[in-house]
Amino acid sequence: xxxxxxxxxxxxxxxxxxxxxxxxxxxxxxxxxxxxxxxxxxxxxxxxxxxxxxxxxxxxxxxxxxxxxxxxxxxxxxxxxxxxxxxxxxxxxxxxxxxxxxxxxxxxxxxxxxxxxxxxxxxxxxxxxxxxxxxxxxxxxxxxxxxxxxxxxxxxxxxxxxxxxxxxxxxxxxxxxxxxxxxxxxxxxxxxxxxxxxxxxxxxxxxxxxxxxxxxxxxxxxxxxxxxxxxxxxxxxxxxxxxxxxxxxxxxxxxxxxxxxxxxxxxxxxxxxxxxxxxxxxxxxxxxxxxxxxxxxxxxxxxxxxxxxxxxxxxxxxxxxxxxxxxxxxxxxxxxxxxxxxxxxxxxxxxxxxxxxxxxxxxxxxxxxxxxxxxxxxxxxxxxxxxxx
Length: 389
Hints:
alpha+beta; 50% helix; 11 helices
């Protein structure tokens, strides 16, 4: 049985050369499906990881009650001071609370790739590395309080033009100078940082968007949250940072789920139909071969396996080609998504898990595409097929 199956399968695969055009259609169809699937899953995974990596369990972010994002929040200076001095907030050696009152504004910049305008977030902070020690200068120096100076994230500088050290950036009420480049490995690398008070003054703002604090410990969140939510002078929502960024990824995940599985599912259905038609055509043109093999003792199971192996083989060829194209086009590249205060720039990283997902998807569709033609070949009446030839 095994020897028969191997022999028929090898004979079947050698015959692909005679069906090169039809087989190529199947390979190209699966290449497109897997290419799109891997690309979209890579974008979704990279963007979500960039957001989630910004969350640390020993930090909390405070927004105005009902606001689900920093851009929709506004807190008065008095509220920000109350939040920073609440129980559970860690303190520096000087005794000052480790907290930052942030202001965020959007600004448009030209992409390096095509010159089109796209938004980046300019974030004003009152405490940079005390609250977010992962922010590390890699070039230049830190901005000076009271001066119109900026430091830019590596991803933002890679994606956008005019953000090198020494460049002057046009914001409201004048130009600001880029004095440094930083990395953080998370969403904050997608924008620029500057002094909060200076940014508020330039944009004529009297409020901040959020307050982020470092907690004394992970367990201190409950005390911190209770103190703020029971204070009658405040109306705020308190989130542990990972929970806040997980909330930001939900809409993103819904969008990419639709594109990844619904759209590519439709494409895969088309590829499956193409594979099925190709395999039916292959079975039809090989009626005499199949009938002869059956007549000399080869079982129907061997014929079924040989047709299925050919279908899966063609699907896997397409999957490997699609994965290779995605890798060549996107791996290590940067993309930007969103607008205004929700802009995000991230580096794309194609993971082995994503590649395996694409290959499994293609193999499954190839198997289903070859199943019915394989069963049809196994049920082929031997005597009728021999008489017809």
